[in-house]
Design goal:
Layout: H1 13-26, H2 48-58, H3 74-90, H4 106-109, H5 112-123, H6 140-159, H7 183-187, E1 206-208, E2 214-216
Antiparallel strand pairs: 1-2
Helix pairs in contact: 1-2, 1-3, 1-5, 2-6, 3-5, 5-6
Length: 217
């Protein structure tokens, strides 16, 4: 029953569009267009949607029973997000009308704020669990776990060195190579990898022992 939603780990255009919409909503381009000050690339511009798809299809995958074959999750997760978006719109809870000119499903058609509202609706289990694709169908615990991961994973990918792997980012980890300095590191003024950074390791403590002897530790 999984074959309809889970493939060999190759994301189709609908899955890609859904994850583009997801990461754009969580870490948007900043500041907003027209604002003064520096403009920082968002998760969409840094291709974090590819990171999320890769992680879901390789690391956050399922194994059924005694099977050693991993089941990729990006495709089914995209279907789950679109199902949640459709229920948000049907319930009248969407703040803005969907832009049906955007291809890729209902989640991508929503305004960013309504994509976040969809995530909240799913996390709160304010959803018909029976309408979701496997493995989320009738499994609220796994659904809540995944929504939490989608938020944390997007932030982790954004502030990691992943985007700086450039043309090697979709290769296996042992083949990836940094091609430039990560944009998000520059944004938070992280100077990069070092053998060691000076850091507070505690305070000197003077102990006065019996007889007046002092010891500094």
């Amino acid at each position: 029953m999984y074959s309809a939603y889970m493939n060999a780990g190759i994301a189709d255009s609908r899955t890609t569009a859904t994850f583009k919409a997801l990461v754009e909503a969580i870490v948007p381009l900043s500041p907003a267009s027209g604002s003064s000050g520096p403009c920082y690339a968002g998760a969409l511009e840094l291709h974090i949607y590819e990171y999320m798809i890769w992680e879901l299809d390789h690391w956050i995958s399922l194994h059924l029973g005694l099977s050693l074959t991993p089941i990729p999750l990006a495709g089914s997760t995209a279907v789950m997000l679109n199902a949640g978006a459709e229920q948000l719109v049907a319930s009248g809870q969407a703040e803005f009308a969907p832009n049906y000119a955007i291809m890729g499903g209902m989640f991508a058609a929503l305004a960013p704020i309504d994509r976040i509202r969809t995530l909240a609706k799913l996390e709160q289990l304010d959803i018909d669990l029976g309408s979701l694709p496997p493995p989320y169908k009738d499994d609220g615990g796994f659904l809540v776990f995944m929504i939490d991961y989608l938020n944390r994973g997007t932030m982790f990918g954004y502030y990691s060195e992943w985007s700086a792997y450039g043309t090697t980012r979709l290769l296996t980890p042992v083949l990836r190579r940094l091609e430039y300095f990560p944009a998000s590191w520059r944004q938070v003024e992280y100077p990069g990898v070092s053998i060691g950074y000076r850091a507070l390791r505690g305070y000197l403590l003077t102990i006065v022992r019996e007889g007046g002897e002092t010891t500094i530790v």
